[in-house]
Amino acid sequence: MFEPPTLKDIANALGLSTSTVSRALRDTYEISAKTKKLVFDYAEKINYQPNPNALSLKERRTKSIGVVVSEVANHYFSQAINGIESIAYDRGYHVIITQTHESYLREKINVQHLASRSIDGLLVSLSAETADTSHFNYLHERGMPMVFFDRVPNNINTHKITANNEQGAFEATSHLIKSGCKRIAHLASSDHLSISIERLRGYTAALHQHGLQVNPDYIKHCPHGGMFPEETEHAVSELMNLKDKPDAIFIAGDRLSIGCLEVLKKLNIKVPEQMAVAGFSNSNVLDLFEYPMSSVRQPAFEMGEAATEMLLQLIESKYPVTEFKDKVIDTELFARD
Amino acid sequence: MFEPPTLKDIANALGLSTSTVSRALRDTYEISAKTKKLVFDYAEKINYQPNPNALSLKERRTKSIGVVVSEVANHYFSQAINGIESIAYDRGYHVIITQTHESYLREKINVQHLASRSIDGLLVSLSAETADTSHFNYLHERGMPMVFFDRVPNNINTHKITANNEQGAFEATSHLIKSGCKRIAHLASSDHLSISIERLRGYTAALHQHGLQVNPDYIKHCPHGGMFPEETEHAVSELMNLKDKPDAIFIAGDRLSIGCLEVLKKLNIKVPEQMAVAGFSNSNVLDLFEYPMSSVRQPAFEMGEAATEMLLQLIESKYPVTEFKDKVIDTELFARD
DNA sequence: TAAATTTATGCAATCGTTCCCGAGAACGAT
DNA sequence: ATCGTTCTCGGGAACGATTGCATAAATTTA
């Protein structure tokens, strides 16, 4: 049905060979000016576009990069994607976005799919379920360029870019403490994620620094990052059923924040009077509340940009890269009362 | 660097020809069982994956569809995309997502890019800026299968799927009236979009039915659908500067709703005491407010599914399709007080 | 005028895959 | 022994683009 014109079409119409047409279009020195003009004009007229599949086959690259994130509905990721696209488009690369919905299996399938689509490189933020990264190791060992951002593995030697999670968590927790909270709980994503570990570290550091005890009962992990509402509900309920209820919660993520607020509303617990809340989130909607929650913002757009820069550097490098960067970008605390 | 195995590699290793290997892998009847076994096992061992570019070149199709939406951060679109992916993946298609950010130029570039990537079909929701659809007409005339959803053009004859915008707007506006509001303003996206026209129609119908006048000063359009904060701010300020201020606003979209609430908060106008608000939105975060706004939900996931079904039908049809559906799905009003 | 050089173009291989042919072997039937 | 089938398999031409090499014509040089 949809049959775009090819080099051969131009060649036949003009009584030239495909090689001449090809060279004319690519403005090679060995083609005469008038032939070039002839070809240019005709190509323009029929709106010729080179077939990208033929090109990819020949050049052995697709000029497209794959992106693996948990969900585009997450504000952090949608902003990061905007950063990724801004760089990629500028450099002539296409971006293929896939979502894991925090599922390990989905991640594996997506990565497999992307690799089989012969993309030039991979930009990844791990799913909450992912503990085993062998599907990435496999590709990495075979030379597939990849850069991790936000949620990074520790056993793959490549560029990584993360927010300063420990600092962000420290500041948010400290803010809660300074607001007068004493019993601060922590609602976290799955416990093996790099971001979870780092944010937990910041949280405990803040407690220690202010002479508060770390109460293990106050720390709740959601293995699927709050992807299932029941998960969050269960965690928050457990906190509320403690005999020594927390008076604040430091929440480790966007989706968890929204989920947690939903549960608190359902339980009819007033925020912030009965329960102070602060956490990581890139959603500006949270500012619309009568009493907005304090939030740690990650520089999502910049992280997307930086990760893409790094990936393109890997892709376009003539020699195998052996020195890898581990870039950490500071977060920003938007303190509210 | 990353050189996946090819048919030839298998053929050489096994002392067969590429055609035999090809046929063996595709389980053709003319290959003996033991040869098949041999090939299968070896292919399995080296994890052979057919080169998709070579396949696309040969088969003249890419098994991927392009999606054009304004923003993935919009909850309506992120849910629609989930619907699209659920169908597409099941049927073995890949999904390439592009964002217009409500820009006509960006849309044109993206569509051009997608077409040049020789995708098999297109799933489109128009940008707020788009008045001229000739970039789609051009492709459509040449036989590119395409399905429009949500924001549809009226001069392209193909499958379309929309929410019942008029009904939704009517219900939301009626709800405001029944809550006692008399001077109901309407904050809309750009005035040539199909959704804007239909929602405006529902809004005026509701006013008429309840014996209220339609005041043109109360109707404000944002040409970029609130993509720029100043746009919304300007529109809302104008409403607030009227000598006969509205007592309610019916808002035509997700982004506009959030933008409008931001402005109202900034102007220190209490919702809903000083200003009742209702509108189209698929964001569940709005329910977290102390006084949640009533919202019209579109069945985004289902719309994505349906649009994809239709598109795949067009793509895979043996004969040119001439009968086109225009599916309208009902919205649902979530009334709050 | 013949040889050398430049200029402009075409031929053919290549990328990885499929598929139309055709080739050879095995086998049974005549 | 010859022929027609059937079963396996390989050769080679596509698909659309690029590119090294060959070649013809045009031009310059000796």
What brief labels describe this structure?
homodimer; 337 residues; alpha/beta; 434 Repressor (Amino-terminal Domain); Rossmann fold; 3 domains; six-stranded parallel beta sheet; six-stranded mixed beta sheet; 12 helices; 15% strand; DNA-binding
Strand order of the largest sheet of chain A: 2-1-3-4-5-11
Mean pLDDT of chain A: 93
Distance between the first and last residues' Cα of chain A: 61 Å
What is the chains' assembly state?
A: homodimer
Q: Determine the structural class of chain A based on helices, strands and strand pairing.
A: alpha/beta
The parts of chain A where pLDDT drops under 50 for at least 5 residues are none
Describe the main β-sheet of chain A briefly. 6 strands, parallel
Q: How many separate structural domains of chain A?
A: 3
- CATH architect. name of the largest domain in chain A: 3-Layer(aba) Sandwich
The count of DSSP E runs of length 2 or more, i.e. the number of strands of chain A, is 12
CATH superfamily heading of the largest domain in chain A: Response regulator
